[in-house]
Amino acid sequence: MRKGITKSIPHSMAQRRPTTHGKHRQAVLERDDFICLICDLLTDPDVGTTADQYPTLDHIIRVVDGGGDDLDNLRTAHKWCNSALNVSLFGEGWVRARAQDRFRQS
Ligand SMILES: [Zn+2]
Predict the structure, then answer these.
(1) Could you say which DSSP state residue 67 is in?
(2) Which residues are in the CB-under-5-Å shell of ion ligand 1?
(3) Is the distance from CB of 41 to CB of 99 less than 8 angstroms?
(4) What is 18-104's CATH number, 3.40.1160.10, 2.10.25.10, 1.10.287.180, 1.10.30.50?
(5) What pLDDT, in 10s, does the model give residues 44-82?
(6) How much is the pTM?
(7) Distance 21 CA to ligand 1 centre (A)
(8) 3-class DSSP state for residue 68?
């Protein structure tokens, strides 16, 4: 007869909720005046979370490179700029130029 399954999974390991992110979000956006620090244009928190111009938090030093969720390592970025920077091989200058073309006419 086997023992019951022990409930010894550490909660801190089992659940990693993005609470720090949520807590810092407003502070970072206000510190940066809702300006995307990748392309220097204004973000718009009223457009809806799926829109390109929605403000997100970008890790200056990426998490995979050891960056943390400290305020110092977070900056405001358009949703579009943030994801473009994540996938771009050409770096921030390229994203910046593309973003300015994209958002300037709106
Ligand atoms: Zn931007």
Answers:
(1) -
(2) 36, 38-39, 78, 81, 99
(3) yes
(4) 1.10.30.50
(5) 999 999 999 999 999 999 899 999 999 999 999 999 999
(6) 0.77
(7) 19
(8) coil
